[in-house]
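Lab notebook: predicted structure, single chain.

Context: the supervisor wants predicted structures on file for every construct in the current expression panel, including those that have not yet been purified. This is the next one on the list. No modifications to the sequence; it matches the entry in the shared construct table.
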Amino acid sequence: MSECITFVIMKNVYFLFLLLAITLSSCEEMFEYHPNQIRLNGDEQHLTAHNLERLRSQQPGDTLRLLVMGDTQRFYDDAEAFVEKANTFADIDFVIHQGDISDFGMTQEFRWVHDIMRRLKWPYLTVIGNHDMLANGRKVYQRMYGDFNYSFVYGHTKFVMVDTNGREYSFNGKVPDIGWLGSQLVRQPGEAWQQAIVVSHIPPYDGDFDRQLEQPFHQTLKESGRVQLSLHGHIHNWRTEKTYDNTILYHATTTVKKREFSYIKVWRDGYNIRRIAY
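Prediction complete. Output recorded below exactly as produced.
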C-alpha cells in the first residue's frame, strides 16, 4: 500500500514539474530576466538591411513619397493609430522613424514598437534617438537595426542617416561625425543621385546637439551643394524653418503622441511637406 502511495506522489510531482516547464516556455516571450538583457528573434535583427533590401526591390518614380514620424517612446496606442492611418495612403515609398523608438532603451520597448511598425505596407528606416541610447539601448539598436550612421540611394535622392545625439557622448566633439557626413554628400564617379536629404534625431539648433559642431554641421550641408532639406524629431513639436542663412530647410516632425506626422513629396530639386493629423 505504501509503495502505491509513493508511486502516486512521484507521478503527481512529475506532472507538476512538466506543467511548470510548459508554462515557463510559453511565457518566455512575455518577460525579460533583466531590463538590460538583449533577447531578439531572428526576424527582429538587422532590420535596416532587411528594409533596404525591400527598397531595392521597388521601382522609384520621379516623385518620391515619404511618411515621416517619430518619438514613439511609450505611446504605443498612438503608434498603432499612425500605422492604421499610414496604411490608407497610396503609393508610399517608405516611412522614416525619426528616433526615440524607445523611452528607456530596453529591449522590450524596441520589440513592442517594431511589432507595431512591421504592420506597415512599406519599409521603414530609422535613426537613433537620445532615449534609444539609455541603459543598454545602443547595443539593442545595433543588433536590431544596424549602424548609427548609414546612407542609401533611392531614385534621384541620397538619404544620409546620421547620429546627432551629442549629449549622450558628453559633447566630445565627435558626434555628429562631420567628416563622415561630408564624405556622404560627395557624389562619386558612376553615381546617379542628384540631391541628398539628411535625416537625424536632434536638430542642430537644439541644446542636446553638440554646440561646437552646430555650424560645421550646417556648413557641411550647405557647401555640398546637394542638400535642401534636413529632417529631425526630438523636440516633440513642429518646427520648419531655414534656421541659419536661408539655405537649408530644417524640418522637425512632432511626436506621435500628438497624432501628427509629415507627408513629404520629393522630386528633383524640390519637395513639398504636408502636416497630417490622425
